[in-house]
Amino acid sequence: MLEMKLVSKRCGVIDPLSIKDYIDNGGYKALAKALADGKEKTISEIQASKVRGRGGAGFPLAIKISSVAKEIADVKYLVCNADEGEPGNFKDRYLMENDPHGMIEGMVIDAYLTGATKGYIYIRGEYQKAQKIVETALEAAKNANYLGKNICGAGFDFDLEIRSGAGSYVCGEEFALLESIEGKPGRSRVKPPFPTQKGLFGKPTQINNVETFATIPVIILMGGSEYQKIGTPTSTGTKLVSLCGNVRNKGVYEIPFGLSLREVIDKLGGGVDGGHKIRMVQLGGASGPIIPESMIDLSIDFDHFDVFSAKAGSGALIVIDERADMFEILQRIMEFFVHESCGKCTPCREGNLQLLKIINRFVEGKGRKSDLETLSILTNVMKNTSLCGLGQASPTAIISTMRYFPDEYEKRLAKDEM
Amino acid sequence: MINLKINNIEVSVPEGTTILEASRANGINIPTLCNYPDLGIKAECRVCVVEIEGRRGLSTSCSTICEDGMVVKTNTPDVITARRTITQLLLADHDVDCPSCPKNLNCELQELANRLNIVDNPFDHVEFPQPVDEDNPSIIRNPNRCIKCGRCIEVCREVQGIDVLEYMGRGVSEAITPAFGRKLNDLFCTYCGQCTSVCPVGAIVEKDDTDLVFQAINDPSKHVIVQTAPAIRVSLGEENGMNAGTVVTGKLVSALRALGFDEVFDTDFTADLTIIEEGNELIQRITTGGVLPMMTSCCPGWINFAEQEFPEILPNISSCKSPQQMFGALAKSYYAEKIGVNPKDLFVVSIMPCTAKKYECKREEMQVNKGIQDVDVVLTTRELGKMIRQVGIDFENLKESEFDAPFGITTGAAAIFGATGGVMEAAVRTVYEVVNKEELKSLDFKGLRGLDGIKEATVTLGGQEVKVAVCHTLSKARILAEQVKNGTSPYAFIEVMACPGGCIGGGGQPYGTVNKIRSKRIDATYNVDKDMPIRKSHENPAIKSIYENYLEKPLGHKSHHLLHTTYTSRNKN
User: Fewer beta carbons within 10 angstroms: which end of chain A, N or C?
Assistant: First the structure.
């Protein structure tokens, strides 16, 4: 089997609205174990698992937990980033809609470890169904004393609340998300300080995404040393991928790190529909690189994705066959980022629009020779100088296509420019 | 100390120093745009980026704190390309109407483009036209020139606590605007003009009234007189390339004469008059159980603030008009009668450090003759600078000359009106001697001077200890106003100035006003005071004479008619 269902093992099996179903299928056992083992041992299990954050950057989870745990403050916060706005990505939605308690249990354990007393789940505004399911799950968890005062008699308090996004992509960026919870416009902040030092309302805050929190119970029940045997030495465990685009079996798959892209597309995805050929794949979503078919034997893990400035954590794989026009794809991507840039820093606010203006010319076959140089300079400046991940990553698709498909750009120059 | 290398130079700086500060301290001048001294770090424009060894991408030097062993490069090809590209991006989304922009040659974006040797722009112009807000007498907002640096938002929110400006929208359609895209005069804007003072480009500027003044000067049917506020003489030099803190009183008078004004007068005269009226008002309030604390009324930004946000405390505000409006009232009554000119043909111009004065002179209460403004036009220090340059006056080399009579004889007490604490100090000098009938041993109240936000002192009046307070910036004014409103104010008398540092830091003062420069202007102000032969308002012979010949007595019938005013709740909620 290529798939390896650990985090998603209950998805489609249990009734997500029933906490009883969750408990009958091994739910909240990890919490009991963590409470029995104590903080130190539990953190060392997570450390031994070598698990990295499943949001984007792949920051080691144990380090984050430990740094929040050692902060001294009157209140610490735990924030779950469920603002999955990256086009092509839908694995957190899948988890929330099918097994909300997995995420909640992970957060309760985390709160126990860090001393956080209050948590927020920031759910993407469009995820109305997920919001309702998580709301029901929170209610049930409160009634069963998995949330609230003196949880399971272990002498610690933790409350969780849902905050709904309002449709802004940049609110998936951790600082913009915190600003949004605080009731301010979603705009990133200057760092340092990092959230673990000064996060939500200026207090120490741990922020991770749904899949990361949902992985915590898995690790605790399996044991860190067993968990780290899965995957590759630097990308341990399993990963949920959102497979979409011109592929036959679109959907969420949980796989061990280290499978090749080709295996996932061909064997899990059933290849490209209609007998067409794969031309390119975009890794990680709209902000990720587009690589040619010739490179898709690539292993899915943090190290190999990093080479392409891709974020393995986000797990979106968008398959594009030979019918698509590359520039129309780039145009859609840039229209998206023009719309979603918060406007706070110059390179992102102004740069995305200028990139779009240039790409528009290539869509019409009116590219200028000087555009090629401008694109290469501007994309590089945006990547190097933008305040947050949005502007740093939005030019990635252009950078990668210029590298792997230079002929396409040449072909779309205006006739008198060739 | 932290040791690091910047451009191969070994640098040692105190902990907490930013790379920008460390570089500047070592002769490396990194360009900036959103950064402004005395305001917070925003790191939004990204112009000040540098390369730090071992870090991915480039880092903003304004927000990055120096660390031991850091290796910083401020001029690598990547850095230069980034700065140029970012500036070109800004220029593409900016109305590059430089020759017809009021900030031409005074624009930080223009200067940056020039410095980075930008001679072309690969980027298409961004078309996103927005309406210009010129619906108030003081400030024009042209969003088409805005580069979204956020300085105006910050000064309005953090320094003034008024908070009428905010980012709206996002991405390229992001704009800085009053809430919900309304106009400044729909909101609680006090027209203090601090936003015009910090805007790096021509997006928020004072309303330019220089042409009105030239027209009047050139109109043979008009008798045109001018008054200059106490704070102008310590700041106008900067408009003309001189060092901050240079006292240019004599040159100022000569320049105004050269511009063609018929008579050149000093607002200091009516500042002295203010002290007499306001001092007597205070004594009257204390002795007759009137409303206390009394709060000063010289500052129109403060008056707008109080009328809009604290209507409950209007009875606490002195009924005295501001010195500018006392001057206007006397000009269009006493002076017009004296020289036999119909007030209609008398044109009164004020040179003020202030944009809110432009609003004040248009208030209906400020018309001694119904339908005729007492003060016709208010120009800021910056506008006067423009007029001086326009007609080609070599300011620095001007001979000095004296103000005209009868509004030219003034005191040190009036001179210090321009600095925070000055009105209070001037008032105390007079009230103390009038009430206690004994001479003050020292005229210098050092505790009331300087840039601390709220200053206090205790004065003995008629054997009674009286507490007084001085504040500047509207955020500090709000604190004292809240106390007054709640009945918890421990003071008898409070001086309020809306702008940081008082009028010397007014919204109409030369660009680049930062605390260092404010301090220099303040020092210059007290030097003017020290050098004056008379330093107490009640000893001004010209003041004594105008009471004898015209006004009769302080708080008398004529004073009441000409020199006092009323306030109205203008709550816009």
Answer: N
Question: Which one of B42, B103, B207, B357 is the catalytic residue?
Answer: B357
Active site residue B365: yes
Q: Where residue A1 falls among pLDDT bands split at 50, 70, 90?
A: low
| Structural tokens at position A178 | 């915190």
Task: Please report the pLDDT score of residue B571 as a whole number.
Answer: 84
Which residue ranges does chain B devote to CATH 3.10.20.740? 2-75
CA atoms within 13 A on the CB side of B562: 27
Closest approach of chain A CAs to the CA of B66, in angstroms? 12
Inside any domain, residue A276: yes
Specify which residues B531 forms β-bridges with. Answer: none
- How far is the C-alpha of B195 from the C-alpha of A389, rounded, in Å? 31
ipTM of model: 0.94
Q: List the beta bridge partners of residue B72.
A: B6, B52
pLDDT single digits (tens) B76-109 = 999 999 999 999 999 999 999 999 999 999 999 9
Of A296, A321, A346, the residue that ends a domain is A321
* Residue B118 in contact with partner chain A when CB distance is under 8 A: no
A398 HSE (CA, 13 A, CB side): 34
Residue of chain B whose alpha carbon sits nearest to that of A192: B64
C-alpha span between B114 and B122 (Å, rounded): 16
pLDDT per position as a tens digit, B302-325: 999 999 999 999 999 999 999 999
Is residue B281 annotated as a catalytic residue, yes or no? yes
Question: Regarding the domain delimited by B2-75, which CATH topology (the fold level of the hierarchy) does it fall under?
Answer: Ubiquitin-like (UB roll) (3.10.20)
pLDDT (tens digit per residue) in B186-232: 999 999 999 999 999 999 999 999 999 999 999 999 999 999 999 99
d(Cα A311, Cα A56) in Å, to the nearest integer?
5
Interface of A with B (CB under 8 A): 168, 170, 185, 187, 190, 192, 338-347, 349-354, 357, 370, 373-374, 377-378, 380-381, 383-387, 392
Top CATH class, B211-563:
alpha beta
Three-state secondary structure call for residue B382: helix
Contact (CB, 8 A) for B23 and B32: no
Q: What are phi and psi of B348, to 5 degrees?
A: -105, 120
Cβ distance of A353 and B172 shorter than 8 Å? yes
| Closest residue to B44, CB basis, from A345, A352, A373 | A345
Residue B147: closest C-alpha in chain A: A346
3-class SS of residue B259: helix
Note if B278 is an active site residue.
yes
The model's pTM is: 0.94
